Amino acid sequence: MSPWVEKYRPKNFLDIKGQEEAVTKAKKFISQFNIGKLTRGMKKALVFHGPPGTGKTTLAHVTALENDSEIFELNASDLRNKGKLHEILRPAMEQQSLTKKNKLILVDEADGISSVDRGGLSELISLIDTTTYPIIITANDIWSRKLSALRKKTEIIQLKEINYNIIKDVLFEILRKEKLFLNPNIITSIAIRAKGDIRAAINDLQSVSRLKDPSIIEFHERNKEVDIFNALKLVFKGKPTKETLQIFDSVKMPLDEIILWVEENIPNEYSGVELARAYDLLSKVDVFKGRIYKQQYWRFMVYENALLSFGISSAKQGIKTGFTSYKKPSRILKIWLNNQRTAKKKSIAKKYAKLVHVGHKRAMNEFPIIKQIIKSNPEIQVELRLDADEIGYINKII
Amino acid sequence: MVTKIWTERYRPSKFSEVVGQDEIIQRIESLTNSLNIPHLLFAGPAGTGKSTLALIIVKELFGDDWRESYLELNASDERGINVVREKVKNFARTKALGKVPFKIIFLDEADALTPEAQQALRRTMENYSATCRFVLSCNYSSKIIDPIQSRCAIFRFKLLEKKDIEKVITSIAEVEKLTVTPEAMEILYEGSEGDCRRSINLLQSTASISPSINENLMSTVISNAKPKDIKIVLDYALSGDFQNAREKLLDVMLKESISGQDVIKAIQKEIWNLPVEPEIKVKLTEKTGESEFRIVEGSDPFIQLQALLASFVLAGLGKE
Predict the structure, then answer these.
(1) Strand spans (E) along chain B
(2) What is the ipTM of this complex?
């Protein structure tokens, strides 16, 4: 007996529920690929991205089936191993399929390409450049930095979390086919707890279907990953609830980075009293962060987390509506840009610092005073062994 | 070659030349004379003589060859404790020659090290205590972990008093043939904030324009050396434009390499000139003090300052 997730995996576009938009786009891509092999500038690869259990791999397989294609499946580690890659792809490139008309390359779970080892990713990109067959890639998080090069080369289709009503319908349909009956309340609760993950829902359903008294079951909620945009939306727009309290736990990002995201986006949502309250709380988050660091007492993280989620959420009156496009933290980038700009100043400050027994950070701080001293005295410029560029810099500044 | 940088040229090289810190000088001088010094921890604000005193100690101990037996490191400049450890290791490997049985390692800005790095430092101090003495300097001894504090003799340096700064400036002015009016001296002292290095730098900077230094010249130089844009940051905040205030703040801090503490200082002084009710001024001052406290304790200055700006926005709206 195969697991229900396999048994009831959709076999054609019509069976796929709750992803109409993605299905339409996938159809369009494949039909364009068939006619338009010749059109220049057309993207040859498609990315399905979305949370687990929303049908990425299924949609890829169905797309192949509906297009009468043979699938060549690669995973992240194949891409790193050139020998293996060619072994898989050689039949695709050289032989005519016996039964199928077309071919399709599937790269499943591209998130697995490690960010340390760039080889896999560049191999994938060169594969996209050279392929004469359509490529479908699945990924949980296409916005992760390591995949940025990939985004430019591909058409991106998002698969949304599946609405719980649709999940419920699918579960009822399966029960009907299995000739089983379950209390509808249990079905509803499975559907809600799945949080858009239909695979999880079907697995849960199968696990309770044979119980005599399924109502005793307690489902263990899966820890579901939320992307930072959704988490921010929940915090900034929604009412503070127990769920808000845990929202940042499910974001796969270090808390320090989340703090930067919140910091950047508070003024996009709040103003006046709300703004002041929110930043006040954020400043306390930062205080707890410092305490953890200083005392190595990690329980303070509870407070850091609670103030950052529930706290910031509670800074507003009621709820907020409308769409806000959240910005990436810009501070780190600005610091970097500034470092580029002040490289000369820094190299002068370093030379100066060494001579006068101070740290070069302090020399940077005192630069407004010392620049005049250095500028007006060529002997000091010699003493500091400034090079021509540095002398140019010091003479230019006012 | 004699240096043209006055902070170096006029740096005292004997105990008797040091101005201020009388009590500390006495204690250190007697320790040095006994040729047996423990590890030392110098705590105090910038420009109060910590590095100078460390240099005097080694010059007294080792005479003209002091460079052989002295290693100077700056914790906030070195890339991590491992670099520090490596340098210490190489330096400490050879034994000191001559009558003094140890070498001296001066670690400036030791409070820039994280607590973990300080733990590692403590091990290093122990491992090499037979051949080396450490002189640590820091702004805040509270940022130094207890085990290190307990291994050191602690000396707290105070800001220089007005008479001390005046003495230093007057003696330099004499050699450099400058005239400094009493009013200019007053402004110079205020601008120096008790930091001797800063006062000498300000003097040299002003003297590079003219040898006769009056009130006007002095205050022009000081205000040129001061960050101007902080007022703009506050103006934005008070007019309710938080976004611009925030942007400008980051700009100022980055472009002019101004530390969070300097921004706070400027804000704190500006409060009294704001067009708001007295009780709001008091509240803002309290908030500013709290922010400064947190920054000193090691919080992220930019986050703390943003929170402070947000309360200035409220004050501007008359809601605080």
Answers:
(1) 39-43, 70-74, 103-108, 132-138, 152-156, 179-180, 212-213
(2) 0.76
